[in-house]
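Morning. Coffee machine broken again, so started the prediction first thing and wrote up yesterday's gels while waiting. Chain of 286 residues, entered below exactly as on the submission form.
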Amino acid sequence: MHQSTKELIKKYGIKFTKSLGQNFLVDDHIIKRIADSSDLCQDDLVIEVGSGIGNLTVELARRAGHVIAVEIDRHLVDAFMENIRGIDNITFVNEDILKADLRSIITGCGFNYKNIRLAGNLPYYITTPVIMHFLENGPKVQSMCVMIQKEVADRITAKPGNKNYGALTVAVQFFAEAARLFNVPPHCFIPQPGVDSTVISIKVRECPPVELLGRDCFFKVVKAAFGQRRKTLLNALSNSSFLNLDKEQCKEILAKAGIDEKERGENLSIEQFATLSNAISLQTEK
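Came back before lunch.
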């Protein structure tokens, strides 16, 4: 841990809040590596989630045009402000990232950006909600470079047939291309978490990789397929309350989609899920 972090923690009597998943990244090499991996330039506006006392914020601000640092814990504000003293391209927001009016905050910061990028050491308890928020309905971001729990990174980047492949994998893959960058061991944090962490890159797609007759139907099919992942697709789909299809209808749909009714959802590619979803859309339109 570098001295400035020790001093700030002691000076402001910072207590770590377990319910907020607070694990401060204090390894300078890793901090700079995340900032470098974010691939920033002076035209970029960065939204940092969970800025803590600002160690990563400072490195992001050196590379980007402007940083909006969002931190929910009001007890960290004074330490953060001291850490970023003299840096004029940071806007600090003491709010919940999932409730903050980021569009207004972006407009208010007055920076003329070309791209918006997401960065940060995501609090583990809100990792999936934050990622999906920005993919589905948050401000349009071009990319994310975030540190998350290794287990979640395994799920996001899994391939069909892998035990980690699931609804989250397909959802992220629909909106973006995700890749693992590097792992971060527990000793790089204070306090040390009980799990390993992974930095991942998520590059948001301009358009989905598949054509759908109905997006809602697609995500219902994915949810149904993984809701009972050990069941065959025939049973998982026909038992699903999301789809309201009986077993005979599901047999017919699977046959039209060219998918074995004994197959399991964990083995389907996103293209196969799209084919299946479109077959269901056509069936229900009759």
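The mean pLDDT is 93. Going to sketch it on the whiteboard this afternoon.
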